[in-house]
Each structure stands twice: as C-alpha cells, then as structure tokens.
Amino acid sequence: GQQLNQSPQSMFIQEGEDVSMNCTSSSIFNTWLWYKQDPGEGPVLLIALYKAGELTSNGRLTAQFGITRKDSFLNISASIPSDVGIYFCAGRKMNYGGSQGNLIFGKGTKLSVKP
Amino acid sequence: DAGVIQSPRHEVTEMGQEVTLRCKPISGHNSLFWYRQTMMRGLELLIYFNNNVPIDDSGMPEDRFSAKMPNASFSTLKIQPSEPRDSAVYFCASVPGQGQAFFGQGTRLTVV
Q1: Considering only A64-78, A83-97, B98-112, which range has the smallest mean pLDDT?
Q2: How far does chain B reach from its first CA to its final CA, in angstroms?
Q3: Which of residues 80-99 of B touch A (CB under 8 A)?
C-alpha cells in the first residue's frame, strides 16, 4: 500500500535548538500536511501545503512541499518545552475524476525537549 | 463550531461484545475518515467517505469491522465481535472540500 517514510522516529534535544524532520514517499501527492499530537488528544494541524515548492511558515514552524511532490520537511526553530509531542506528516492525492483521495500519515516523530 | 465530536471517549468491553463508535463531523465538510492509532502501527486509515459514500475501505482489517454514514452529520464504526487486538485509539476526521483534516479527540477502546 501507499507509505510515507517519516524521519527521524524520535528526537531528544535541548531547549533553544532547531529541529528538522521530513517525509518521503515513492508516490506523488498534491497536498502535504503537518500535524502535532499531544497526549490524549487528536492530531492538530500545524501547516498545510498545496503547491510543489511552496514554503510556508507558522510562527517558529516552517514547512516546504518538495519540488518532486514526493517529499516535505518541517523545521522548528528555537524549540521550547511545549514543542514536546508527536509530529505527523500526511499526504493526499487526487482521485481519477478529480475528487480528493485518502489521507495517508507517516508514523510520526516523537520530540522531547530538555529545558 | 464545536469541532469533530466523537463518543464515547473511552470504552472498555469484553471480548466478543459488539462495540459502536460514533462521530459527528463538522457541518459542511464533505469527507470523513476513520483512523486507528496504535504504538506499533501509528495512524492507520480504516475507511473514508466522500459525500456520505464509502470510497475506500481497503484499510478495514476484517469483516468484523463495518462503517456507515447514513447522513452528512453522523457516522458509526462498528466492531462485532470485538477482540483484544482491536484495542487502540480510534479517530474520526472530517475534511472540507480541499485540504486539511480536522480530528476528533478519539475513542480509546480497550477489549479485555
């Protein structure tokens, strides 16, 4: 089936450091999304990307939609303790006929931040 | 808007019992997804609907699982009979015409 390879699986960093994670696939997607999940909650959208090459920021977060449409990365600058959580990438294709396809998730990157 | 509403938040049941999970999507959204999350497998897509019609149910693990969306404001995921390996957090997500999925808070299912 379709797969997204997300890396790294986990990161343990010092407060103030920058963080980088990415997702790759053998398939082409027309939408890339980045989510964060806190314990006991559902994933919450951080950034949505809809065009190849698009670079979008949301505060300290920056994400890019790869030119090949097969990858995306998320950067977090100057990490703080509340950045702790699991970060997921997700990709979506268009079906034949133009309707939106299913939304596939990566396995997540677990981020731990040491004060 | 209250967001995606799932019920119950927690469910503990005995093996062999029927379990029904419920989801109320955000009004006006035309796609609805059911996911299962476990430590081992992460977020797995079970089934999704466009305009109340099931589009892809290839992720439904077995015939014991079934999902319905009788109208635009309600969907159910049923497991009958339940087994311990079905224990997981089940998420419902609704999506407007294009773009991001909005998730509910999930139902934590424990089958003993």
Answers
A1: A83-97
A2: 36
A3: 91, 93, 95, 97-99
